[in-house]
Amino acid sequence: MPRVIVDQSRCIGCGTCYKVCPSGVFVIKRGKSYPVNEDKCVMCRACITHCPTGAITIAHREEEHLKRLYGG
Ligand code: SF4
Ligand code: SF4
Known about the structure:
Elements: E1 2-6, H1 16-20, E2 26-29, E3 32-35, H2 46-50, E4 56-60, H3 61-70
Antiparallel strand pairs: 1-4, 2-3
One iron/sulfur cluster binds near residues 51 and 55.
């Protein structure tokens, strides 16, 4: 299952991720983007490609779990 992370310190609230995401993952609130439907992410990476500030990262929960276990 994907995990969508927005670095709030980098996000400028331009709304591009909201526009390009085919799955409606993001909402823009008070000038920042929030991944509210990350379970619907299809990992197309459009948001990552189009975000002008590089604020978005996508990770697999399983990978994160393994990293925590093995320190990778
Ligand atoms: S595209 Fe990037 S900078 Fe623009 S709202 Fe989304 S996360 Fe924020
Ligand atoms: S990778 Fe694609 S589906 Fe997932 S949040 Fe970004 S734009 Fe939406």
